[in-house]
Every structure is written in C-alpha cells, then in structure tokens.
Amino acid sequence: MRTDRANDAITITGLTVRYGGNTALERIDYELAGGELCGLIGVNGSGKSTLFKSIMGLQAPSSGSVRLFGHSPAAARKLGLLGYVPQAEAVDWTFPVSVREVVMMGRYGYMGRTRRPGHADKAAVAEALERVDLTALAHRQIGELSGGQKKRAFVARGIAQGAKLMLLDEPFAGVDIGSEQLITDQLRELNRTGTTILISTHDLAQVPRLCSSALLLHRRVLASGAPAAVLTDANLALTFGHAPSETR
Ligand SMILES: Nc1ncnc2c1ncn2[C@@H]1O[C@H](COP(=O)(O)OP(=O)(O)OP(=O)(O)O)[C@@H](O)[C@H]1O
C-alpha cells in the first residue's frame, strides 16, 4: 500500500536521470514520510549524489518527477524548506566568506532583498553556531576549517534556516569522531523536533543506530523501509555486489 502522500516529505515518481548515454538513476519510485530520518546507502557511482541533486532541483530529470511537501523542488527551496549539506568536493572552499556568513546564508529567505540581517537572524545564527560548537571559529574563512568543522558549519546553516527537510551527502566522510558525535546529536535533535532527514553514509553500522528507515540504491531502488527489514544479508549483497560504475 502506498503511504499517504499528504504526509510525504519526498515523493519521487518514475525518476530517470541520464548524463549523455549514462543512466545514473532509472525509474526511481520513492516516498519518504514526514518525520523520518532515512539512511541512503549505495556504492560509489550508485547515484546518491544525483538523487540529492534531483531532490534539490539542481539536476533536471530526464523523465519522472520529484515533489517535496507537495511542491516542486524549486518552490520548496524558495520557501526555505530544504537544507543541503553537500559533499566536500562539491564546494568551492576558497570562496571569501566567513563561517558566520555561511550560516547566515540559511537566513536569506527571511531577509528580503537587502539581505541585511535583523536581530532574529543574528540570534538564530548565534544559536546554530553554538549548537555545533563553532562560535569560537565564526570569524574564520570557511576554507580554513577542518573537514568535520566545515560539515558542522553546513549543518548550522540548516539549523539557522529552520529547514523542514535536510539532505546530507556523506556528512561523516573524513570527519573525526568528535565532529561525528556532534553532528549525530544535532541530527537526532532536529529530527525529534520535526525535521525530516535524508543522509547518505558508508557507515552501515550507523544506520540502525541513527535512522528510522533505510534506502538501498544502485541506479534503482533495491530496497527501502525499516532498517531491520532492509539491511538483510541478501539486500546488502545486492547493494555492494555491484562493481562501481565503469563510466566514473
Ligand atoms: N556531471 C556528470 N556527468 C556525467 N556523468 C556523471 C555526472 N555526475 C555523475 N555522473 C555519473 O553518474 C553516475 C552516478 O554518480 P553519482 O555521483 O550520483 O554517484 P554517487 O553514488 O553519489 O557516487 P559517490 O559515492 O562516489 O559520490 C556515475 O556513473 C557517475 O559517473
């Protein structure tokens, strides 16, 4: 039985994404109910980043559709519903902005055209910085932070924004144990207070500990649902038995 679409944070129907002759995602049907914290698992090249970009509206589908809380991705972004923590490689770290300014970007949707932060914006940024323990580094250029601190800055941006759906593309890659703990604590807290979260990770052991659902991907959805039902030996063999895409 299909889930109640009115309650869906993400509804993906028949999504196919091709890069030239290479099919990265093929006929994806997937629904994520509001309030879930879902772990996305797949080998390198299985289409995880493409899925995130499609959800963000940064990658046009070849066919099919993505709806977020009933909106198109572009509309959902405009409404400030989406927070995105991209893979480290996808960010230009030389961009001359401070950590505080990165977090303040989460408030742009509240500011109007002048982008002059008001009292509420400054307070939200200060609180978000505090929650990820970056207050002392707020003045630093973003590229001067460690890998884990950079991830925490992006998580803080999502917190300051009050995003209803947070997408995190491998937030634990190259991150030390302290940052990982801080990020997981914040994700749990955000989820507890109503934020729906989709997080890609290579750390299989973490999924049952952190997530309420799991999604196994290899160009197509291999399995999705409760972690215990999804993370079976047979499904994992299917997920990791695939060689990384040869076109990569
Ligand atoms: N801009 C692009 N142009 C052409 N092919 C691309 C492009 N981006 C991704 N691909 C291809 O699409 C497939 C899926 O890539 P994607 O980056 O979505 O996978 P991934 O699961 O996120 O991989 P990783 O875990 O290594 O980040 C791969 O075969 C990749 O080579």
UniProtKB/TrEMBL annotation:
Domain (ABC transporter): residue spans on this chain: 10-244
InterPro entries from the UniProt entry: AAA+_ATPase, ABC_transporter-like_ATP-bd, ABC_transporter-like_CS, Metal_Ion_Import_ABC, P-loop_NTPase
Keyword Ribonucleoprotein: no
Gene3D superfamilies: P-loop containing nucleotide triphosphate hydrolases
An annotated Gene Ontology molecular function: ATP hydrolysis activity
Keyword ATP-binding carried by entry: yes
Transmembrane portions of the chain: none
Pfam families with a match to the protein in the record: ABC_tran
Source organism superkingdom: Bacteria
SUPFAM superfamilies named in the record: P-loop containing nucleoside triphosphate hydrolases
Keywords on record: ATP-binding, Nucleotide-binding, Transport
Similarity-based family: Belongs to the ABC transporter superfamily.
Protein name as annotated: Manganese transport system ATP-binding protein
Species whose genome carries this gene: Paeniglutamicibacter cryotolerans
